[in-house]
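Tip: read the tokens left to right.
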């Protein structure tokens, strides 16, 4: 039998991202690896050409944290660093995941990131990126939350929260937005793409995906950007979660040529 191998374009992309790496699975599972490499490193990439490679890899890393894919994360982190994602950006991806995936899931990814950076000669800790203090984090967080989500939406969330839930709204403003979105190292539009990728990958967060579709549009990302992100995630998170996120996108920002409900029926 002739050995199976990725197509020329997939092989070239694979060599650029993972120079000199030979997958053991290409030996034990050659058919699957041929399918996957041709799909993930050629076919999918042809539909994400307008998304910078660095951005695609960063959103893929964020999604891998969300689904708990530690081994694949280690491999893809190496690829991301190889093509120019900086150590500071890599750390900020992990930090941004904490309020969405939770520290219980992120903990091992933080250690994996530190190990990878140390192996590459990066001295840790990196310079701090926080811009808030314990006294300013809630006000600064509320300001960036309103920029991202919208004044009316945030005011409504506070107004509609029962008295025994008000503290959760305050924690959201101070911690999620005040501790994380105010950091330097990644700008707000980049953080919103990461958040969208994580929520899509998590599954079961449809309301939050819809909310962050709107948030992405509010900070300047486009429907085209979000479709490219989802296309890049598809090989790693599968069709159900990708299609669910696509449904959320269509509900909030339908395509200009989408049929109306009446036409569709």
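Filled-in amino acids:
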């Amino acid at each position: 039998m002739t050995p199976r191998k990725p197509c020329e374009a997939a092989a070239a992309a694979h060599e650029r991202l993972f120079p000199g790496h030979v997958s053991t699975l290409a030996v034990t599972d050659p058919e699957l690896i041929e399918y996957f490499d041709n799909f993930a490193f050629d076919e999918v990439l042809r539909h994400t050409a307008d998304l910078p490679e660095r951005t695609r890899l960063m959103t893929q890393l964020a999604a891998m944290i969300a689904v708990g894919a530690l081994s694949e994360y280690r491999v893809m982190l190496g690829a991301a660093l190889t093509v120019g994602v900086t150590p500071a950006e890599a750390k900020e991806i992990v930090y941004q995941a904490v309020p969405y995936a939770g520290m219980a899931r992120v903990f091992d990814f933080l250690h994996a990131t530190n190990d990878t950076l140390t192996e590459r000669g990066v001295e840790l800790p990196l310079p701090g990126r926080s811009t808030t203090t314990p006294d300013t984090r809630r006000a600064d967080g509320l300001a960036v939350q309103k920029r991202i989500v919208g004044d009316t939406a945030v005011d409504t969330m506070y107004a509609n929260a029962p008295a025994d839930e008000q503290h959760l709204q305050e924690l959201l403003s101070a911690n999620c937005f005040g501790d994380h979105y105010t950091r330097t190292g990644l700008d707000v539009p980049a953080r919103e793409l990461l958040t969208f990728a994580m929520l899509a990958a998590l599954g079961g967060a449809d309301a939050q995906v819809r909310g962050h579709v709107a948030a992405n549009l509010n900070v300047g990302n486009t429907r085209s950007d979000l479709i490219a992100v989802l296309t890049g995630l598809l090989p790693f998170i599968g069709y159900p979660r990708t299609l669910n996120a696509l449904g959320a996108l269509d509900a909030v920002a339908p395509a200009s040529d989408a049929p109306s409900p009446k036409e569709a029926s």
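The chain has two domains: 8-21+28-43, 55-252. Residues 63 and 197 are 5 Å apart (CA to CA).
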